[in-house]
Amino acid sequence: MGTIDPTARVEDGAVIGEGTSIGPYCIVGPNVVIGAHCKLIAHVNVTGHTTIADGCMIYPFAALGGPPQDLSYRGEPTRLEVGEGCTIREGVTMNIGTKKGGGLTRVGARGYFMNNSHVGHDCVVGNDVIFATSATLGGHCEIGDFVYIGGLSAVHQFTRIGRQVMVGGVCGVRGDIIPFGLANGQYASLEGLNIIGMKRRKFTRERLAKVRAFYQKLFHGPGIFAERLNDVQPLAGEDPAIAEILAFIGDGKLRPLCLPAGDGNRN
Prior knowledge:
Keywords: Acyltransferase, Lipid A biosynthesis, Lipid biosynthesis, Lipid metabolism, Transferase. It comes from Bradyrhizobium archetypum. One of its GO terms (molecular function) is acyl-[acyl-carrier-protein]-UDP-N-acetylglucosamine O-acyltransferase activity. By secondary structure, this protein is an alpha/beta fold. It folds into 2 domains: 3-140, Hexapeptide repeat proteins (UDP N-Acetylglucosamine Acyltransferase, domain 1, 3 Solenoid); 199-265, Udp N-acetylglucosamine O-acyltransferase, Domain 2. It is built from 4 helices and 28 strands. It is elongated and about 65 Å long. The relative contact order is 0.08.
């Protein structure tokens, strides 16, 4: 059975799941649904049309479901959804969506959001991500599964970060990062592949060799990037990761592609 501290304020209409505890001085709005076996430790504010799935741990001064930081927002009943098993540390903020952005901010399961990290309006965040301290997403970003974003790094609005990417600390991410990429630098550039992450996801030595060879041909081969991209298209059949990277590049529309510094930036 869950508990609600007498100093907490849970508005009429809120739905609280079995076994969920709401600690001192928390505020839960009337359109909030909190799943089973969650824990709001203290001083947590959950508002808006927000749904939090089972088993989430939310630390003091997190603010979830606040209005989007978008001047066009006019109070529409847009939503925030947070997946099961997330850990949301102190001071984290996640905003609801905007009507023009589809009306939904969605955060996947089992994410770990360190203190003061931020998920902007209309973002779609995958499963098993880690946002280090003060990692920040602008609006409309798309973040794949198993992404790690380093401390104090900021991602420009409408940017896509593919699956299993690692972004270093104190990076300004202004372009789409390919799946399995490793990005670093004050203005993030592609430094290679996230080999450690790929090994953790059970890539064999043979697969790693194929994807590495593809990466070298695409980003460090002779000629301009557009020519190299055309030349490597037949390699999509060699490995699912190569096909995923090529599909990701092909789907890009709103932001430039994050490329290696130096020769890799020649278009």
